[in-house]
Amino acid sequence: MVGRAEPDELRGAGSDSPLIHRSPLSTSGEPLSTSDESADVSGKPLAASSKPLGTPDKSANASSKPLAASSKPLGTCDKSTGASGKPLGRPGKPPGASGKPLGSITRGTTGINRLRRSDRWLIHDELVRGRVREAADPLVVDLGYGASPVTTLELAARLRRVRPDVRVVGLEIDPERVVPGRDGVRFARGGFELAGLRPVLVRAFNVLRQYPEEAVTSAWATVLDGLAPGGLLLEGTCDELGRRCAWVLLDRSGPLSLTLAWDPFTVDRPSDVAERLPKALIHRNVPGEPIHTLLTAADRAWAHAAPLAPYGPRARWRRTAEILRDNGFPVRPYRRRMRDCVLSIPWDIVAPVKP
Question: Is the residue at 276 inside a domain?
Answer without folding.
Answer: no
